Amino acid sequence: MRLSVNPNDKTPIYRQLYEQIASDVLSGKLSPGTPLPPIRTVSKELGVSMITVRSAWEMLERDGFLVTRTGSGCFVAQLNEAHRQTRVDERLSAAVDALIADAKALGVEEETLHAMIEKRYR
Fold it and tell me: What angle, rounded to 10 degrees, do the helices at 50-62 and 39-46 form?
């Protein structure tokens, strides 16, 4: 697993880590039972605080993406299909809402936005 962070991004680093891992779990790039690297290792490799990495791991566990086994570490959780679909829907809905808000603010017509999406999706 390759994690990266952009310190110049307005998104907090813990959130960048969360988003990368959540996306990999939802897409199947990370299979259930896959171990995550230790917090200390990620912290050193990325040059960020252990508290930052721990925050991301705790959020991922809270949201059902990870499970912690005392003495063994953190592992990708087994998501049932309903949970996975709910998470996918939440992420896409937020992105679509932001896109629509931007389009409206810029005065882009609905048909134009549809055409842009269709063109880029292919």
Answer: 130
Cα distance between residue 93 and residue 6, in whole Å: 24
Return the pLDDT at 87. Answer: 87
**DSSP annotation string for 5-64:** --TTSSS-HHHHHHHHHHHHHHHTSS-TTPBPPPHHHHHHHHT--HHHHHHHHHHHHHTT
pLDDT digits (tens, 9 = 90+) for 76-102: 999 988 888 888 898 899 899 999 999
What type of residue sits at position 25? V
Could you name the CATH architecture of 13-76? Orthogonal Bundle (1.10)
